[in-house]
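Weekly structure sync, notes
Attendees: PL, DS, HV (note-taker this week)

Item 1: 4-hydroxybenzoate polyprenyltransferase
DS walked through the input record. Source organism listed as Actinacidiphila paucisporea. Sequence as pasted into the shared doc:
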Amino acid sequence: MRRPQRLRTPANRLRMLVAVARPPVFLLLAVYTALGTAGAGRPEDHLLLGRALVPVAAFLMFSVAVNDLADERIDRVNLPGDPRRPLVGAGALRAEMTAVAVVCAAVATAGGFLLGPWPGLVVTAGLLLSAGYSLRPVRLSDRGAVAALVLPGCYVAVPYLLGWLAAAPAPHGRGLLLPAGLYVGFVGRILLKDFRDVRGDALFGKRTFLVRHGRVWTCRFSAAGWTVGCALVLAGAPSPTPALVAVWGVHLVAVLWVLRRLAAQAHPRREELLITAAAILGRGMLLVLLAHESMLPLGWSPLVCAAVPAALLALTLGQVRVMLRHGPLVRLSLPLPEAAAEGGSRPTGVRPAAATAAGTYGPPPPEEATARGR
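Item 1 (cont.): predicted structure, written out as tokens:
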């Protein structure tokens, strides 16, 4: 197997860093951080939010780099040539990704302790948890339901607590219901991630919840996570208004409809669109909650406080409709180096991305059937 071409130009290295930063995921973590600062009573302190986002961004890039390094073989099966995976799609070298992980770990730790001792400890614990999720000998990502319970600790608890602890003492009592609801809801969301990776996970013995229990039970547990998480968030939200409850209820009904369709769907393309629609609905719920927490301290009129969630709901449902009818319209991409474009870095027996998607639920080749133990 030929080594991929090094990313020599500064522009290509910058694009690699953007891919590692995963802009959509960073925006999600930024919302959790903003919810933390808003829950602590400082929604208007943009400087504090900006300072908190520095370690959050570095923590995310560390987590992505470590996971990409650990899952390189699996990604070559699930996502061959995907520009969002620099190791398999953009010719990055393992040394470059290792350097990104080391530097980002240092930046995240320093940024956390600059906010205070408790934020620093939260970031440090998150880095250790993220490393244990991906790296051996711990490698929690191979442990089915445990992985789905651990990952929200990285992507929900770390940014939320970082935002809160940067502004106020730790939440307690009823204040814990909201972060607990965000955590449980994210468990329901993260179970859907395994649909995209099921082929490589099964091939390399990664026993995810989906591989162990199948699509129907995965969708059922996901629905339970969404429902319980929604109830906990509404119970813990500060001064929940009828508009907040109604809008979140509509979002939840839409999510359950999507999951019902997903449980009965076997076409990879439709499956991908349904999972993306569920992600859009999840982001919409978070934006409504953030708007609610931000408007309350500002003393906005009840009419405006009801109109804003309704407008966000309409926007979210419109995006879901477009996604289900037309698919994604724009995608961030990186130029493939010549070696990757020629297919030189593809290992023997790995088919192109289109063939991978088409064959996800079809009969596997004999060597794959043997690897799966079927």
